[in-house]
């Protein structure tokens, strides 16, 4: 008699014997599939994607920045003299401009050029700078340091228009760099503790901050800035652009619009050959050396 070994019946895992129908396949949950290693890889991939998008967007914004230097400021501040000195390497005789001047300025050390636009300071035509602002790399607001003590209110009113325009640019546009040029510093006498250029910078900064604070206080108190009496101030009550970080009086280092650089300059007028050599070599007696160096760093 042969004894057969008993083998128990193994049910088909894909068949439900009680129902007589195939069993439903098991569905794995996402949590069981997404292991910790997979989560780390997915997170890193997402971070790399975000960084790539940010880089492309930022590069596009910087690429859209123009190549214009705008010379702005009141009439007789010396803008046209600065332009002629930068272009021809010496100062040409000038008079008050009533039309925009445009020229290519070479930046020797940077081996680049920048298109420079001298916008007249007359109240009726000075707002033409807004037409060039979308293509501006830098804005140089030129102030006559030897006369700003007498016409500080008018100079501040003009600068207020510029600050308003800069802070009103769309977020998609990189704002141009801003420098305030305390020009004609050679007309000031240096002291034992400060050079003529530094004295010019201190004077221009102090007077402009004081006058801009007056305008800011007048607006905050509901008083139109037209009451300050500056020429061409009609319609200025809607101007903005004087917001600062924190509290206290207006200071350029606290201005919400960004960094403001101050430079002291003068135009060399003691002979064309000496002036040309001074500008090209950027020697210590070149009155525009600070401006040239700033532009080359910006380029």
Automatic annotation (TrEMBL):
Localisation: Endoplasmic reticulum membrane
Superkingdom per UniProt: Eukaryota
Native source species: Meripilus lineatus
The protein's name: Signal recognition particle receptor subunit beta
Membrane topology recorded in Swiss-Prot or TrEMBL: Single-pass membrane protein
Predominant place of localization: endoplasmic reticulum
SUPFAM superfamilies: P-loop containing nucleoside triphosphate hydrolases
A Pfam entry, by short name: SRPRB
A single cellular component GO annotation: endoplasmic reticulum membrane
Alphabetical keyword list: Endoplasmic reticulum, GTP-binding, Membrane, Nucleotide-binding, Receptor, Transmembrane, Transmembrane helix
Family: Belongs to the SRP receptor beta subunit family.
InterPro entries: P-loop_NTPase (IPR027417), Small_GTPase_ARF (IPR024156), SRP_receptor_beta_su (IPR019009)
Keyword Endoplasmic reticulum appears in the UniProt entry: yes
Residues covered by region (Disordered): 1-21, 215-240
Sequence intervals crossing the membrane: 39-57
UniProt-recorded Gene Ontology molecular function terms: GTP binding
């Amino acid at each position: 008699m042969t004894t057969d070994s008993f083998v128990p019946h193994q049910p088909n895992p894909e068949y439900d014997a009680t129902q007589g129908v195939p069993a439903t396949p098991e569905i794995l949950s996402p949590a069981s599939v997404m292991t910790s290693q997979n989560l780390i890889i997915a997170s890193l991939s997402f971070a790399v994607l975000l960084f790539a998008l940010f880089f492309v967007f930022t590069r596009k914004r910087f690429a859209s920045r123009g190549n214009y230097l705008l010379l702005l400021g009141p009439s007789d501040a010396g803008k046209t003299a600065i332009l002629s000195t930068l272009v021809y390497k010496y100062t040409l005789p000038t008079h008050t401009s009533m039309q925009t001047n445009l020229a290519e300025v070479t930046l020797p050390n940077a081996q680049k050029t920048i298109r420079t636009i001298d916008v007249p300071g007359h109240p009726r035509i000075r707002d033409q700078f807004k037409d060039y602002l979308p293509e501006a790399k830098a804005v140089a607001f030129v102030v006559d340091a030897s006369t700003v003590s007498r016409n500080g209110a008018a100079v501040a009113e003009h600068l207020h228009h510029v600050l308003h325009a800069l802070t009103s640019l769309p977020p998609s546009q990189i704002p141009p760099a801003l420098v305030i040029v305390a020009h004609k510093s050679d007309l000031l006498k240096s002291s034992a503790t400060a050079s003529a250029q530094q004295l010019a910078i201190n004077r221009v900064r102090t007077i402009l901050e004081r006058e801009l604070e007056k305008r800011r206080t007048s607006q905050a108190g509901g008083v139109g800035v037209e009451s300050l009496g500056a020429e061409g101030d009609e319609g200025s009550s809607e101007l903005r652009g004087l917001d600062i970080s924190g509290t206290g009086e207006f200071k350029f280092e606290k201005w919400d619009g960004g960094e403001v650089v101050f430079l002291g300059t003068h135009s060399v007028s003691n002979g064309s050959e000496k002036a040309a050599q001074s500008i090209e070599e950027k020697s210590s007696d070149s009155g525009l050396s600070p401006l040239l160096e700033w532009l080359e760093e910006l380029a």
